[in-house]
Amino acid sequence: MPPFDAGFGVYIHWPFCQAKCPYCDFNSHVRRAGIDEARYVAAFAREIAHMAALAPGRTVGSVFFGGGTPSLMKPATVGAILDAIGRHWPIAADCEVTLEANPTSVEAGRFAGYRAAGVNRVSLGVQSLVEADLKALGRLHTVGEALVAVGIAAKLFERFSFDLIYARPGQTPDAWREELVEALAHAPTHLSLYQLTIEPGTAYAALHAAGKLHVPDADRARELYDVTQDICSKFGMPAYEVSNHARPGEECRHNLLYWRYGEYAGIGPGAHGRLVTARGRRAFVSERAPEAWLDYVERDGHGIVTEEVLAREDEADEFLLMGLRLREGIDPKRFEALAGRRFDHARVADLAREGLIETCPDGRLRVAPAGFPVLDAIVADLAAS
Predict the structure, then answer these.
(1) Is it true that 8-257 and 313-385 share their CATH fold?
(2) Span 355-365, pLDDT tens digits
(3) What is the pLDDT of residues 236-270, one digit of tens each?
(4) What residues of the chain score a pLDDT lower than 50?
(5) For residues 86 and 240, what is the distance between their CA atoms, to the nearest angstrom?
(6) Residue 105's pLDDT is what?
């Protein structure tokens, strides 16, 4: 295994949704004619076999079904994919298996089937506890449906989480504080809280450009961010990553794998992967279009369309970009091993004097609370040689 091993996981991308949300720039597609799940299962199994040949001998510590909307899959499809993973890699006894789900009544009805298939954690895309805002976000569920789904998840799964989006049009700090307190009453161990951003190519981007969508300005967004940190900390769920809050020990292990710069096989249309091979750390990207990906896998055994052996500086930059998102920070020795150089002492000292970074007693370097709103600038400063 590579030095500074941060674990190994498998990401499965299910690219289909019932509808495209106006803010979403993920690789998701709407298909009205129905999906041949058996054909996709066979393709997932072939691509898993290909990745296992590139990264043999790993033990799977986490599996994450993302999308798209994985909860549109039949439980038997999820089970077949997990079986395929288990045929090619050993599975850790405490492996975390997360499935992203939408909280419509139809999808919540499948939760018991997912549990039986091997899923032990669900992440629910609630997004808002305000009815009008759910509609504006293009969500197909109601607040009532969302809370019922959360209740079902709490009964069936040892661990669950849900997402909310804040800095929505017209949102005030007081309204967000009230909504967040309600959310914490329903998800007492983990919440993912994302600030709304206008992503190129989305319906929201077109509305924003036309002056028909107004989001909070930078000052108001900062107020909303500060409310988020304050309320979650008071409820014992501080941020362990920029947008993720959890009680100690309840962090999403699969996402920690990314942020700690571990290895992961990306399976499915548009999936990304990072594997350490004899040639070095390799970055993989698969074909985004589901039907084209399917054709490639059936012809070649995989849907990879770009592959790159990362240069040392690229690895070091990725490590910084991912690791400094975490409240625990990074080990400078790992940066030195990747980059072949140490951090610039003067830059580190300047950022520390400004209260933006701090050195832990164990030598780890982390972003201070005041630094997270300007994280990108800190990463760029530290990465500069």
Answers:
(1) no
(2) 999 999 999 99
(3) 999 999 999 999 999 999 999 999 999 999 999 99
(4) 1-3
(5) 30
(6) 77
Closest to 126 (Cα-Cα) out of 146, 151, 145 = 146
- Separation in Å, CA 40 to CA 57, 78, 108, 116, 301: 25, 11, 22, 21, 13
Sign of CA dihedral 137, 133, 13, 270: positive
Question: Which tokens hold the place of 84?
Answer: 């395929």
Closest CA to 269 of 17, 12, 22: 12
Q: What are phi and psi of 27, to 5 degrees?
A: -80, 85
* Range list of β-strands (E), 176-271: 190-195, 239-241, 244-246, 263-267
C-alpha to C-alpha distance for 41 and 36, rounded to whole angstroms: 9
Judging by beta carbons within 10 Å of its beta carbon (0-12, 13-18, 19+), is residue 155 exposed, middle or buried?
A: exposed
**CATH placement of domain 313-385:** 1.10.10.10
Tokens 């832990």 -> residue? 360
What six digits make up the tokens of 286? 């698969």
Q: Where are the domains of the chain?
A: 8-257, 313-385
What is the rounded CA–CA span in Å between residue 48 and residue 82?
10
Q: Which residue has the tokens 């409240």?
A: 327
Q: Say how far residue 231 (Cα) sits from the centre of its chain.
A: 22
Q: What is the pLDDT of residue 385?
A: 59
Tokens of residue 5, six digits: 């091993």
The C-alpha torsion from 206 through 132 and 195 to 26, rounded to 10°, is: -50
Q: Fold for 8-257, please state it.
A: TIM Barrel (3.20.20)
Query: Could you tell me the two tokens for 250?
Result: 């309840």
Q: What pLDDT is stored for residue 34 in this prediction?
A: 85
Which residue's entry shows tokens 């399917």?
294
Closest residue by Cα to residue 40 from 85, 82, 81: 81
Question: What is the rounded distance in angstroms from the CA atom of residue 324 to the CA atom of residue 241?
Answer: 9
Whether pTM > 0.90 for this model: the answer is yes
For residue 330, the 8-state DSSP code is: B
Burial of 61 (0-12, 13-18, 19+ CB in 10 A): buried
Contact 176, 166 (CB under 8 A): yes
